[in-house]
Amino acid sequence: MAQAQGFGRRYIKAFFKGFFVAVPVTVTFLDRVACVARVEGASMQPSLNPGGRQASDVVLLNHWSIRNYDVQRGDIVSLVSDVWCC
């Protein structure tokens, strides 16, 4: 029984140690390098959501190229509005 409690405590300790390392690394990666987003609607047809299908496409947004001003002709640029209108 004592060994089971020791294993449980080691497991919980290792979990929290990994958690407190993984969360900041993941948040930094999603903020600085890239993130995944869904594209819905007809505004990006025919490049995304071809054929008018109802399913949404999943894209990888590259934050690194924008920070280095490495946008070229033909690239798709995603903008997010912080203002909600009524």
Automatic annotation (TrEMBL):
It comes from the Eukaryota. One of its GO terms (biological process) is protein processing involved in protein targeting to mitochondrion. It is a single-pass membrane protein. InterPro entries: IMP2 (IPR037730), LexA/Signal_pep-like_sf (IPR036286), Peptidase_S26 (IPR019533). It is found in: Membrane. One of its GO terms (molecular function) is serine-type endopeptidase activity. GO terms for cellular component: mitochondrial inner membrane peptidase complex. Its main location: membrane. Keywords: Hydrolase, Membrane, Protease, Transmembrane, Transmembrane helix. CDD domains: S26_SPase_I. PANTHER family: MITOCHONDRIAL INNER MEMBRANE PROTEASE SUBUNIT 2. This is Mitochondrial inner membrane protease subunit 2.
